C-alpha cells in the first residue's frame, strides 16, 4: 500500500532568506525599531501593502493581534456588539472579548459560508462592527454583506487568515472591508511560525493601530506612507494620537520579517498549485455518494491549502467510523463537531456569556470534514489522499452500486 504523504510540514523557507537571517543573528538586530530606517519589518510591510494594493500595512505578532488592534483602532465603546460567523476559529471571538466587546454569532450554511438572511436579521440588533471570517478560505457573499453593512454605516473587518491570494470579482480578499487581517502561522500560505499583518487605506485607523501595537515615544515616525501618497494625513493622525492610547506591545520582530519577505514572491505559485490540487481532489471526492465538496461561489477564486467536504447520508456512529477508517488508512480527518474541544465548534467557546444555539451551524459542523492539502503535494500524493477518503467511506457504507443494479 502506498504510504500517505506528510501534509503537516510546510514548504522550505527560500534559500534567499538565509543571508539576511545570518546578518541579523550576527548583529543581534532583531527589534523592528532599532534601525533608523529600512528595518526588515518595515520593508516587509511596504512589500505586502504593494502586493495587496493597499496604502498601509502593519505587521504584528499574530492574526489574532491584528483583529484585536483593528477593533481597538475603530474606537468602539466598551461592550460594543461585534457580529461574527458561528463557524470560525476560537481566536476570532477571543479577539472580540479581548477588545472589551461582545461577540454576536450568526448562522453558517452547509457550504461553510455566512447565511445572509440570518446575518441581516442579527445586523439590526445594535451591532457596532462586523468581522467576516473567510473560514478555511471560503468566501461569503461579500456583495450582499458589504451592501448591508454600508447601508448601516457598520465597519467590516475581514479575517483573511486562510485567504491570502483569494479574490472576489477579481478584488483581493482582505481589501474589501475597512481593514483586512492575515496570518503567517506555519499552516498558512506564508509561514513565519507565528505572525500577522493588517492592511487598510484608512490613515487614522492605521495610525491608532501602529501606536497601540507598541510604537512608543516617537517610533511611529519610522512608519511611512507609500510613495506618492499624501503623507500629511498619516503624520497628522500619528501626531493626534501620540500619548493618547495604551500600548499593547504586539510587534513583529525582524527575524520573522526576514523569513516572510522572500516568500511573498512565492504566493502566486502557491495559490495556483493549491487551487489545482484542491479542485483535482474535489473532483475525485465528489464521485462518492457519501462525500460532497460544496461548490465555490461564482465571484470567488480561492487559494486553498486544505479541503473541506460534507458527509452525506451517514448517521453519527457512521461519521465516527468514517473518521476512524480514514485515520487507519493514514489520512487524518477532522470532523469539526465530533470533538469535545475543537476550537472551531462554537459550543466550545464557553468564555462567551449567554452563548447562543445555532442549529444550522451545529448541523453542518457535525458532518463537515477537514483535511490538509498543501500546495506542494504532487498528483500521486493527491490520488493517495482521495483514495483513502473514498475508501474509508466504502469501508463504512459498503461499495456504491452502479445505477440500475
The CATH C-level class name of the largest domain: Alpha Beta
Seen as an oligomer or otherwise, the chain set is: single chain
- The secondary structure category is alpha/beta
Low-pLDDT windows of residues: 401-405
Percentage of residues in helical conformation: 25-40%
Q: Count of DSSP helices?
A: 13
Mean pLDDT: 95
The main sheet orders its strands as: 1-9-8-5-4-2-3
Biggest sheet character: 7 strands, mixed
Shape: globular
Radius of gyration: 22 Å
Order of helices and strands: HHEHEHEHEHEEEEEHHHHEEEHEHEH
Q: Find the CATH superfamily of the largest domain.
A: Type I PLP-dependent aspartate aminotransferase-like (Major domain)
- Beta strand %: 5-15%
Query: How many separate structural domains?
Result: 2
Q: So, CATH architecture of the largest domain?
A: 3-Layer(aba) Sandwich
Provide a quick synopsis of the model.
The chain contains 13 helices and 14 strands. By secondary structure, it is α/β, with parallel strands linked by helices.
